[in-house]
Amino acid sequence: MDHKELHHEHHRKERAERKASEKRHDAELARRPQTLHPVWFLVLGTIGVTLAMLIYTLVF
């Protein structure tokens, strides 16, 4: 094989490895239970604190 063919073969192997890795990653994500993204906990906490402060200021 000349250099060009070796280069193309190397890229073919890299693509195959990347595709297999992505397939394994997708399968792992499918097995994992779906949870909330951590940012949503911050959003919900901020809304909760804001509502608590609003209720406190309006009632007392």
Radius of gyration: 26 Å
Portion in beta strands: under 5%
User: What's the mean pLDDT score?
Assistant: 94
User: What are the low-pLDDT stretches, counting only 5+ consecutive residues below 50?
Assistant: none
How can the largest sheet be summarized? none
- The helix/strand order is HH
Structural class: mainly alpha
Count of domains? 1
| Topology, number of strands | 0
Annotation field: number of helices? 2
Task: Record keyword descriptors for this entry.
rod-shaped, 0% strand, mainly alpha, 60 residues
Quick overview of this protein structure:
The chain is mainly alpha-helical and 60 residues long.
Q: Describe it for me?
A:
The protein has helices spanning 3-31, 38-59. With 60 residues, it is an all-alpha fold.
Topology:
Blueprint: H1 3-31, H2 38-59
